[in-house]
Amino acid sequence: MPRRELTPPLPWVDNLAPGLMQKREIMWVVALVALIGIYFMLFHHRFDRVQMTIRPSLRPSRKADADVYQVLFALNEDFRLTSVEVIPMEGEKFNPQAQAVWHLISDSNSVPIRAFRYGQNIQGMKSAIKDTRPDALEPGQVYRIAVAAGSVKATADFRAKAPGQ
């Protein structure tokens, strides 16, 4: 009985030079790897986690009889804040259970903001305790501000200073 081939012969394979198919496959793989590399080189920042940094700075107050310099907080980008909390430090130690002197939470959808000052009413945020105002900062006292924008959080310490101190 004659022996039969299991697969039918492909007519175009016979016409190709030996090794040509391998060269084409290698070229396609190289081209695909190059395109993927270019994509990640151009768009790698889309996969980075957003980080927030807070830079507190002291500014002269507009009021002549101010007890402390006005504190301005600058963020590295515009953020839709969900929480702002300022807590006094106890010496060199931080007690997260201490009473906050200023605490705001987002009631719905806060506006993107890059800078704000201590005690400012931020649009879209309200006091965590209804009908309360921020406490006055004490000269020489160290405070910690904790800011959150969804899952992105940051903290910074600052010292309140009196004019002329």
Keywords:
165 residues; alpha+beta; Immunoglobulin-like; 5-stranded antiparallel β-sheet; 3-stranded antiparallel β-sheet; 8 strands
Structure description:
It is built from two helices and eight strands; from the N terminus they run H-H-E-E-E-E-E-E-E-E. It has two domains: 14-46; 54-159, Immunoglobulin-like. Strands 6-4-3-7-8 form a five-stranded antiparallel sheet, with no helix packed on it. A three-stranded antiparallel sheet has the order 1-2-5, with no helix packed on it. It is elongated and about 110 Å long. With 165 residues, the chain is α+β, with helices and mostly antiparallel strands. It is 18% helix and 32% strand.
Describe the SSE topology.
Blueprint: H1 11-15, H2 20-43, E1 54-59, E2 70-80, E3 83-88, E4 102-106, E5 112-117, E6 125-127, E7 142-149, E8 152-159
Antiparallel strand pairs: 1-2, 2-5, 3-4, 3-7, 4-6, 7-8
Quick recap:
This protein is α+β, with helices and mostly antiparallel strands.
